[in-house]
Description:
alpha+beta, Double Stranded RNA Binding Domain, four-stranded antiparallel beta sheet, 5 helices, 4 strands, 44% helix
Amino acid sequence: MNSLAYPVTLTPDTTNGGLVVTFADVPEAITQGETLAESLQEAADCLEEAIAGRIRTGKSLPVPSPMSEGQYLVDVPARTAVKALLYNAIQTSQLTQEELAKRIQHDEREVKCLLDPRRSPKLSHLESALRALGHRLIISSV
């Protein structure tokens, strides 16, 4: 997984007004907004919480499906996206957090901090952990 941008469907709520926001790839992420702009902001917040929840509970992260006509693309906010990419790299490598800690010459608490969605580790530490797993963090603007 190289990108964490997920397609979102906005459906008018005929009962209460506004727009209901759903992600086919992340079914637990459902929210609502009154306007298009508010709905997309709520979508980003909701998606971030859903991805963070999956990391906390050790569940796999879904691969984003292609965007279809009428959908919008919502990015996982940058800090959580980097943690999600690190989480996937650890899962793929089948290393334990203890083994990764040895590779990056930190203790296991540091690795837990790197993955904790509520903590804000230094970006350089996240990059170091990714490099130790054979990955690089590349930031791009499109």
